[in-house]
Design goal:
Length: 372
């Protein structure tokens, strides 16, 4: 850092260095925050391995992770891009079924090939590949839905996505090879195979890992030039086109990326539960995703994470109500649209809302600046 003495003898930095310093410090702060989150997840995993966290709490934590990925993926389309997708659970279903079928064929005895194609022990290394394959299949399904979105918005796009959700579920209901309406099961055998190699809460580990990867991917996407184009479509699509934004290309990539992440959430969900059927991914599941997005705030990644945590706990509290909770969840969405349409955080991040985080960041930057 270049320094120079002022008239009163104090040392000051050049303006060029001061301009660069905040970006460098924000980068360091992001790295430290990331390491803190990784440490917290590692601590939870260690406690689970030691038996200090029972299976029920582990299931709730895994459900939170799956919901974070699902809500954040929908937020790309409904929040950042300003579109109105209502059938996101259909892409989750594609990822769940594709990853489940691959998992059964590769690592377990199954009705498709009989014996597994690979030794079950390889599931420790290849499980992420199976989940990502489900995400890629969901991205292809998102591509098919993205094309009609070129000339549609708002209510018309909502109708298209709802139709896509029903088309996917109807197809699955009539595919006997994947169990049709009876569903598909046996994915837990892959988890047991991983535990036979090394006794760890593997699903907790993998869900935490994919949550980190997905959040980082979304954050980097929205901070890129492509992400700025997505935000431009939300404010005014015609103006974005005038400013040389290829809106069709942006929509295509946003839909595919969003659908792919939903497929990853579906694959993790299938292996966490060990059983799936088409009804699991009906319009109510899509409604859950919309409730989480609008509860946290459209265009806020922190809001999606926060709402996924709150919503998962809310579902657990309402579990004794059984079928009545499916009356309460759509009612919650109606109330949000009426009284708090911007959600908890709006389009802001948590650091923009909580002054303590901004104060901490400012103090930390000053301390680092003085130290240098």
């Amino acid at each position: 850092m270049k320094e120079k003495k002022t008239a009163d003898g104090n040392v000051s930095s050049s303006s060029a260095d001061i301009a660069v310093l905040p970006h460098e410090e924000r980068k360091k702060h992001s790295i430290r925050l990331f390491l803190c989150i990784v440490a917290a997840m590692a601590l939870i995993t260690t406690l689970a391995q030691a038996g200090l966290i029972n299976q029920y709490i582990q299931t709730v934590l895994m459900s939170i992770g799956v919901n974070i990925i699902f809500a954040s993926s929908l937020n790309i389309v409904n929040g950042y891009m300003g579109e109105f997708s209502c059938g996101h659970a259909g892409f989750m279903a594609v990822g769940a079924y594709i990853s489940s079928v691959l998992s059964l064929i590769l690592f377990t005895e199954n009705k498709f090939t009989g014996t597994p194609l690979l030794p079950p022990e390889t599931s420790v290394f290849l499980f992420p590949v199976v989940i990502i394959a489900g995400g890629l299949a969901a991205a292809v399904a998102g591509l098919i839905v993205a094309i009609p979105s070129f000339k549609t918005r708002d209510d018309y796009l909502a109708i298209i996505t709802i139709a896509a959700n029903f088309i996917i579920l109807t197809a699955l209901n009539n595919l006997e090879i994947v169990g049709a309406s009876s569903g598909l099961m046996g994915m837990r055998s892959t988890v047991f195979a991983m535990r036979d190699v090394l006794s760890l809460p593997w699903m907790l580990v993998w869900i935490f890992a994919f949550v980190l990867v997905c959040i980082i991917a979304i954050k980097r996407l929205m901070g890129s030039t492509l992400g700025k184009g997505i935000s431009a479509i939300r404010y005014d699509e015609v103006s974005a086109e005038i400013m040389s934004v290829n809106t069709n290309r942006i929509k295509l990539m946003a839909f595919m990326f969003s659908s792919g992440l939903a497929g990853i959430a579906g694959g993790l969900f299938a292996h966490m539960i060990g059983f799936i059927n088409p009804k699991t991914f009906d319009i109510m599941k899509s409604t859950e995703g919309m409730v989480m997005v609008y509860l946290g705030g459209m265009g806020s990644l922190s809001g999606s994470v926060l709402s996924a945590v709150l919503f998962t706990f809310l579902l657990e509290l309402l579990r004794p109500l059984q079928i009545l909770k499916w009356v309460f969840i759509p009612l919650l969405l109606i109330l949000l649209m009426q009284f708090r349409p911007e959600g908890l955080l709006g389009n802001r991040e948590l650091s923009d809302v909580v002054p303590a985080l901004r104060v901490f960041g400012a103090k930390w930057r000053r301390r680092e600046h003085i130290r240098q």
